[in-house]
Amino acid sequence: MTLTILKPGPQTSVQDLGRDGYAALGVPRGGACDPLSLRLANLVAGNAAGAAALEITLGGLALRFDAPTVFAWAGATMGVTLDGVALSPAHRYAAAKGAVLRFGFAEHGARAYLALAGGIDVAPVLGSRSTGLLAGIGGFKGRALCAGDVIECGEAEPRLPGVAVAQAERGEHLRVLPGPDWPLLGQDAQRQLLRTPWHIGLASNRMGMRLTGTAVDVASASSLASHAVMPGCVQLPPSGEPIVLLADAQTTGGYLRPLVVIRADLWRAGQFKPGDTLRFVEVDTAAALAATTAQRDWLERMRRALAWEGR
After folding, report:
1. Cα(first)–Cα(last) distance of the chain, in Å?
2. Span 173-290: which CATH code?
């Protein structure tokens, strides 16, 4: 089965759950900026949770199905239609040959994930089908999709449409733990970082969210040598305005690391778009672990329920 891209929107790319184990070689993990929505769309479509799907940033995608197929989408609210009929997120749908699927521009959230039954069939690179946009590797020819691209999908067992589940609520906060360099900030700077309502800047991308607001005084902090960083790390450059690293984050950096987004909220970080406001909420290690466990349990319940439905 193939589909043809009619309009790609600002940025649509093939993504899965990324490349593990290559950070020592300078290769970012990459993958979906919102891994929870990717997993959810895949499970509803009848795929393995980590199958390759399309990540649609800020909407604007239009495509044509070149054969009958089953699909699901999840993530940001975008006003999605199939031949003009409005669709809902986290529902399973069937499309006829020639049907046109359109994503409006993002209303709430930044990224949506389109999962086709059978997954997106592109060659794995370093164990992943995700697109490394900066390096030009993986995905579809190592780049974001363009009008006229024809995308191949894998084989899938027949699935009945009509299945639906509920999405998680994003909210306007990110739960964080103190990072390695938290003690280097003075108490006033620590309070300001946590209490300031930060705004998502226009320079944000898949590498990281650049936040704007009242700058934090970092004059008293020591300069640092380069060190390891990863998605979820909150960097504080000399400007005093934080950067929240996302899926395509570099593997090393030299800025202060005062905070780290907890694993259970990485998906939330991928759903803020320019102009949105966020606040950091400090939690302890026990709360962070409990949140991760609850999220895994929720996904497992979803997987089991959908697997039972498919029998």
Report:
1. 23
2. 2.40.100.10
